[in-house]
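User: My instructor asked us to take a sequence, write out its structure as tokens, and then describe one feature of it. I'm not sure where to start. Here is the sequence I was given:
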Amino acid sequence: MMREAIGMAKFQALIVDDEPLARLALREYILLTSADIEIAGEAGDGFEALAFLKERQDIDLILADIQMPRMNGVELLKAVREAAFPQQPLVIMLSAYSDYSFVRDSFVLGAFDYMLKAKLDENYIIPVLEKTVDELNRRQSLLADSLPSDEEETVCSILHRLSVLQETGQPMLEQKEDWNRSLAIVRKHMGEKNQEVALIRLSEAVPFEDTHRMILQTIRSVTNKERNEGICRVCRHDDRHYTIFFTFPEQCSTVVIRRLTHTVLTDVQIRLRQFLNLRISIGISHVANGVMQWSRLFQQAERLSVLSYFHGYDHLYYPEAARQTSMPSDKHNQWKDKWNLFKTELLKSLKEADQSVYKRQLQDGFGLLIERYPSFPERIKSELSEMIWEAGTVISRNGIAWNDIQAVFPHPAEQVRQLETWEETVKWIEQFLELLHEKLHPVSKGASAWLSPVVAKAKAIIEKHYDEEILLSTISEMVGVSESYLSKQFAKETGVNFIPYLTNLRIEKAKQALENGLKIYDVAEKVGYVNPEHFSRIFKKVTGVSPIAYRKKYERQA
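Assistant: Let's start with the prediction itself. The structure tokens for your sequence are:
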């Protein structure tokens, strides 16, 4: 129903474009297609628009061209978001250019929608304006119940405490009054009917606050825009996780609730991938009632989010995706006996010169782990970490220094816990055991000390150009052999594949740079990593600690 027909004021819009004819055309289209929007004014660039907005803080909608002199549309959007308006206007970006970078920047900064000026006609503009009016109506209806930013933070803080609450974490008697007040705040602003938790897990931790602000803005721009017919709070959990708390007080159907949340979360996933190049997995809990259920729902969503270890990122994981692993204690004991027998046989088979013996045993062990823990990567990693320590005793008994192993696989028992996927874990364990087998069955001294001219030249190239984007295919061309031959020969003669060799060399150089006090992004560039975040992830995977933690540890020791 039109707002004017029921006695409500029209929404106020500002058109910002440096072309007078474009402003006139857009004004006419809006007059023809929407009875709920009134043009309050026009501006020729971003500076004029800001001056207008200072005088008229009742503007509900801004339609801004991206390409303008003095201050373009993206700069205007940023300035609007930083301004302290009582109610932030919705912003629709307009452009004659389908420029991806402008679109991405606009949505990251919180643009509501985007339109190409070349496509403007009634059929194109009507759906956009209808969606815009729907959102403005929704925001207006929620305005009376909206929270100031400090209250929003308070609700998120309480929800976070409820999420991580364990049975042993119940408040002491003297804290009961504060606790009850906190529960009352959550009940007031969230309700406690049809609660649901979605945990967003990034493919890697993000150490930069600017990136986190953009992530939070992107998620909130989706959850605020979608008509999910429920209440939603988005909270940052840590450097890798974001929690979305839903309640649906008016819904009676879990099927409808799933459809609503699926729409929102799919949009979140797409936006984070398109605009921030982030891969995520999302675990979604069951629906439950009662404020004390948040902890259980959060833990369920957390368990589901790590299924990316088995199935990869870019997926939404619902409760039915988790395979049941509970079994009676006698069955578990039987499995444990099988697993212990496997480890004994595997370590024994490493002493056999024939590699195929231990490799067959290893495949049996992988099967046992997946059979027992098909949905619990941390338990798999724990079992493998323990197996690595036991393998270390075999190495020591045979007179091989553990430092020789750590030179290639630093802190292996911890390193295996940092691996992100089952596929990556299998490959890593295979390479680790291959190295152990080679150490237990070395070639003659003369052969082990000698490198063929091809491999020696390849090593020299790597050590000279490790700080550049260097590929095995490039090196193979430089030494005059095929890529597949160099790959096999390099691994055979050095005992390690090309990528791990290059990575370990870079990390050793990075350690030296960190010890000399260089900043992390300078260190990353110095050793050949363009992206500091990627460098930090690789550094932690290899060393077991972040670059910051490594530098602090070195400074304490110094």
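For the description part of your assignment, you could build on this observation: The beta strands are 11-16, 37-43, 61-65, 90-95, 113-116, 195-202, 231-236, 241-247, 280-284, 315-317. Try explaining in your own words what that tells you about the chain.
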